[in-house]
Amino acid sequence: MNASAPMSANNDYPIGEFRSVFHGSEPFLADHVIQGQKILPGMAYLEIARAAVAASAPPGDDAMLVLSDSVFVNALTVTGKRTVTVRVYPGSAGQFGVEVSTEQGVHFQTRVSVQKTSECLVAKGYAPVLDIARLRAEITRPGPSKAAFYQTFRKRGVELGPSHRGVEEILLDGKGEGLATIRLPGSSARGMMMDAGALDSIIQSGLGLVDNPEANVVPFAVINTLVVGALTDTMIVHIRQRPDGMHYVAADEHGKVRVIIEGFQTREIDLHAKQDRLSFYRPVWKQVPPPPADDLAVQVVEARDDYAATTKAVLAAAQSLASAKHTRSALELHLTEPDRATRGLWAALKTVSIEHSQIDVRLRSGDAYLALSYEDADADIAGEFAWRDGTTALISGGLGALGLLVAQDIAERTTGSTLILLGRRTPDEAETARIEALRASGANVVHRCCDIAQIDEIEKIVAEYPGIDVVVHAAGLIDDALVIHKTAEAIDRVFAPKVQGIENLDRATAGCPLELFIAFSSVAGALGNAGQFDYAAANGYMDTYIEARSARVRAQQARGRSIGINWPLWEEGAMRIDDASRETLARAYAIKPLPSAEGLKALRLAIASPHANLLPLYGQKSAQAALFAPPKAVAVDARPQPPSVELDKLQREILQEMRLQTAQHLKMKPNQISETEDWTNFGFDSILISSFVSHLNNVYDLNLMPTAMFEASNLLRFSQFLADNHAAEMSRKFARNGAVAAAPAASVPTQLPTRPATDTVSAGAAVSQFARRFREAYRNRSSYREEDVAVVGMSCRIAGANTPDEFWRMLDEARDMISEIPPDRWDWRDYAGVSRWGSFIPGIKEFDPLFFGISPAEAMYMSPEQRLMMQSVWECIEDAGYGGDSLKGTNTGIYVGCGPSSYTTMMSHLPIEAYSVTGTLSSVGPNRISYHMDWHGPSNPIDTACSSSLVAVHRAIEAIRAGHCEVAIVGGVNALLSPDVYISFTKSGMLCEDGRCKTFSDKANGYVRGEGVGMLMLKSLRSAQRDGDDIYAVIKGAAENHGGRTTSLTAPNPNAQAAVIKRAIEDAGIDFQRVGYIECHGTGTELGDPVEISGLKTVARELLDADAAAEKQVAAPCYLGSIKSNIGHLEYGAGVAGMIKLILQIRHKKIAKSLHCDAISPLIDLKRTPYKVAQQAVDWEVAAGQTRIGGVSSFGFGGVNAHVIIEEYVDPRSGQESDDADQEQLLVFSARNAEILHATLQAYPEFLARTDRSTATLRRIAQTLQTGRTGMQERVAFVARSIDEFDELLRGFLEEKDDFYHRKVYRGSSKAGTGDKLDIGDTQAGQEFMRRLVETGELGKIAELWVTGAKLDWRILRS
Asked: Which member of 31, 32, 1029, 1067 is catalytic?
C-alpha cells in the first residue's frame, strides 16, 4: 500500500497526488472478501489518507494528524489490476482534504488537520495512557469466542483471512462498553502506521456490542480519527457505544494510547447496486380499475380495421382535447376483443398524456381497461444465442449503424454466411468501407437498394436468395413534432418502414426456411416519448405484430422464432437521442447509452430467452424501477388560476427564477414569458424541452425528466410542481431560513451520491464538490499567481490633491472638494439654469514644455488634457523608480482614458497651424508620450465614456498577460474647459442642481462633474518581485462587457453589470466572500444607483447563499462607497480615481467615508446581502493571515462596463531585515535649477513625518531616488544611516541652502559637461572602480562623483 507519486503543483492550486496499483493479492485484499468480491477494507482508507498527508506535509514533533468527517462513499472492488488515486487538497493553514478514487468513482473523502498531540488530547479529555487495569476490573462479562465471533462474519458472506482476524477476546459490561484484545503478530512490520488488518480488527470488536451482528454492513463514516502513534502487534481497545456511533481508544500493552476513533458509523451494502450492467424487462398487459365516475369530458375513439386510420383518429381527438389547455379531459380508445394489434397505440396514448397532462388516456378492450406494464426478466436470461455458420441474413436498414453492427456480429462469429443489406440509397464511402471490412471477415455481403414499404421490391430480392433463414428488421424513420403540430402525412412517413415494412418482410419471406425473425423496436414503443406520437405508434405496432407472429409460429402457421426488442439509446446508431435527454436519463434513472458490445450481447441474450418481446437497459439497475412507475399526477384546476402574488413565498421565488431561466434559454426577456401560457406557444419543442430540463437538473441538482414540463404545461404549473415535489432542492438554492433542517450527527443517509459534483482546476484535474471547499480555503490565504499584475507606480492630480498622499489625506478627512466654476474657466452666471458646480485642478495652465523638449509655440496648441497626461505619466514612472531613460527603447505600453477636448473651441480664435490638430486630438496624447519616452509597446487612447480609464486598465492587463508589453502605464484624464458639455448634460437631466454626488442617498438627484488625472504603472507581479519594485497592490482580475440592447442607449443594464463583476471575480480566482469593499460607479442618480445595487445583489445571490450573505453583512461586510461624493465624476478619469482610492484604503487599512449619504435611498434594500454603505469611516479588518480585497466598477453611459479586482500585497520578505540593515544609504536629488531643487526638497520633511522609520523604508527610498529619477543639472546627495538622520540633514540643508555644510551632504552641479567625462557606469574599469568603493563603504566618494555629473551604474550599489 505504499502510495507514491510526487506532489503535483500548478500556479492555481497545488494538489498532492499519489497512486497505487492493487492486484488483489495484497493481504488487505486477499484476506478481505465480501459477497465473493475482494474489497478494500474501509479502515485502509484511513491509513491511505494519513500516509498521503504525512508525505505531503510531514508533521513535526509533538504533532499528530486528525482525520475528521471521514466518509466511505463507495466500496472499492478489485477483480484484476486496479489503480487507486489519492489526492491531497490543501486548505487553510494546517488543513487538508483527502479524496480516494478509481475509475469506478470516488470511494473516500476526509478532512485532515495537523494538531499538537498534547493539546489535542487534553482538549478532548483523553489521557495519554489507557488505564487497562481499571477497565479490566469494570468490564468482566465474556463476549463471544474468537471462533464464534468470526463465524458471524462468514454467515453474512464476509470471508476474513489471517491478517484481518485479530480479535482474540472481547469483554462486555452490559451497559454499552467493552474491552477487546487485538493480536496480529507481524502487523506492525508491514510498513504502515495503522495496519489495515489491525485497524479493521479494532473496528470489528465493536460488533460484540451491537444487537444484530449479522447485519450486512460496511463502514459509512467516522467523525474523528486521532493518530497518536503507530499500532503495535498487540492492542487493547476500549469500546463505547454512543448515539453518534462507536468510539474506540486503542492502546498498546502498556496502555500508551495509539489511535482514537470517534463516531464510527456503518451502512448496509449492495455491491452490485452501483455497477453498470444489462437488465431486461418484459411487457405485461394488465387489467386496471375502471376510471372513477366524474364529470370529465371523454372523447372516445373506436378502433378501426386500419391501424393507420385509427392512429390518425386518435391524433385528431388528442389535438381537439389539447386545445382546451386548462380543462381536464379523457381520451379513450376502444378495441374490439380480438383486435390485439391496436394495443400498439398504448405508447402513442402515453405520449399524449406526457405532452398534455390535463388529458387522461385510457385503453378499453370490451368491458376491461388495460395498461401495459413491465416486469423484471433478468431471471429468464441465461446463455447467449450463437449465430449458425452459413447463415443467410436479410437486414433491413442494413446501411444504418445498428444494421451494420448486427452484420458485423454475424460475420465475425460465423463462417460462410451471406449478409443481404437492404437500404434506400447507395452506400457512401464510409459505408462501403465497412461493407468491405465485412467481406474481409469472410462473409458474402450483398447490398440492394430497396424500399421495404413496397412488397414487390422485397419479393424480387427474396426470389434471388430463397435460403434466407434470419430476418433483422432494423429500418425506421423519425419525424419529431409535438402532438399539436403532428400531421397525418408525418404518420404515413413514419409508418412506412415500420408498419408496412414489418408486414412486407414477413409476407415476402414466408416461404423461406426462417429460423429467426427479429424486429428492432424502440423504448418509445413501450413508454411513449414527447414529440414521437407517430414513432411510438409505429414501434408499438411492431411489438404487437411480433406477439401475434409468435402465436402463429406456435400454431405452425409461420416459421422462425419471433423476437421484438425495444432498444434504448445506443452509443452509435439511429436509436440515439440528443445530449440533453441522454444526460437527463443518466441522471434520473442511471440509464446509459448501450455500448455496441453490450448491445450486441443483449441481442444474443434476448434471442436465447423464452420471451417474444424484451426491453433491455444499460446502467444501474437500482434506479431503473422509477422509469416504469406511473407519472405523478399534476393537478389541473379548471378554475381561473390565482395570480402569482397569492402563491406562497417558495413558489413565488421559484416562479421568478423559472421565468428568468426560461427567458435566458429562449433568448427572450423575462417579461415576455407569461405564467399561464402553454410552453409550446413560446417555441418549446421536444429538443428544447430536453435541453432546458437538463440545464435545470445541473443548476438545481434535480432529477427531472422532460415529461415534467409536459405534465406541468405552463410556467405557473411548473413552479407549483417544483414547489410540491422538489422543495428541498429549490430551498437549498434559495437558502430559505428553516427550509432545510440539519440532520443530527448520528443520522446515516440511506443512499449516497454516486457521482459527486466536479469542476476543474487549472491543471485539468477534476475536483469534487468536497475538494472545492479546500480549494476555496486555500485561495482565501494570501496567494499570488503568475497572471497577477502589480501596481508599482502611482500619480494623480485632482481637486485637493497633487499626490496620492494628499489624496489620502483628503479622503481621511472626509473633505468635499466641490466648488463653483472658477472665473478663469467661464462665467457660470452667463448660463442660466446650467450647473455652476464642479471640482477643479488649480493651475491647470501650468506646464513646462522645455522639460519635455517641446517648443512653447507647439505647447500653446496642446490641450490641457495632453499636458496633464505627460506630467502625470512622468510623475508615475518616477514614483515607480523608473525615471529618466530607464524605460527608453522598451516595449512599454500606455493606455489612457481620454476623449474629445473642449480646448478646440477655446483655440478657435488662433490661426490654424501644423500643431492645431496634434495638440487637441485625444489619440495623440498617449502617442506623444510613447514618442517622447521612446516606448515601442501599444499606445492606445480609450474612449468608452465614464468607463474609459478602467477599460484602459483591463486592456493593459490583457496586453501584459499576453506578452505584448512588459510594463504598461494606465490612467485617465478629464478637464472642464468650456460650458458646452455642462449645457448638454444639464438638458439631459444628468447633473444635480446643488453640485453634490449623493451616492446611494435618499436625496440623490444627479452628479457633479470633476476634472483630474491619474496614472498607474503596471507590471506582472512576478517581474515586479524579481526587480525589487515597491508594490502598492496586486490586480487579481478584470473584465469588461457591454449591456447590449436595453430600454435606451444610455440606460444601464443591471444584469450586464453583475456579469462583468462575476467575470472579474472569476478572472481573479478569489472567493467573493473575501471582498471587503467595492468602489462603486455610484454617480448619485436617483435610478442609476439602485440599478447598480441590483447588479451587486445579483452577484451576491449567485456567488453566496442567502445565509452566508446575511452573516457576512454582520461579521465582515462588503462596504460600498464612491469617490464621486468627494470630487464629483471625473468621467474619463473616474475609473482610475476609484482605483487609486481603493489602493490607498488597502494600504492604510481603512475604508473612507462615502459622503452625503445620511439616509439610504428607499429604492435600495440591502437586507440579507453582504453589503453596507460606508456612511462612516471604518477600520478595514480581515482575519489573521488574510489580505484585503476590493473591487472597482465603472459603467460607461454608452453601455460599456468594467470591473477590476485588487488585492493587498504582502511582501513575503516583510519582517525580514537583511544582515546589512544598518548600512548607510545614499539619497540623491537633482533638478534643472537650484530653485526647483529646493522646492522639491521642501516636500520631503512632511513625507518623512508620515512614513515608518524602518531601515528597509530608508533603503527603498534611496533606491527609488537613484533609479527612478533623471539626473539633472543641479544636484545634492545625502548619506544617512536612518530616517531620523536623513530628516535632520535635510532640514539643515533646507534652512541654510547652499551655505549648509556637513560631511554627509554633497552639493554640486554638472554644468559645462564636467561630469560627463566621468562615464563610470559605461566602462568595465569604471564599474570595477565603483564596486571597490561600494565594498569599502565609501558612499561619500560615490556621492561626490555623482553631484559633479558622473554617470553611475546604480545596480552595482544595489547589488
From this structure: 32
